Fold this protein.
Amino acid sequence: MRASSGALPARRTFTGQRADAARLLHSNARYSDAPLGRFLSPDPLLHRLSLIHI
């Protein structure tokens, strides 16, 4: 069945990450670049955990 709006379905990877037009993968909390093999920002959870020990 096709959508009547003509919009393309969101591209998703095997693990459910959304791929945007720039081929960056969105993993809910941050973006990653598959060819580089790394995330583009620090892990937000690790930042919050480090604040606990201050």
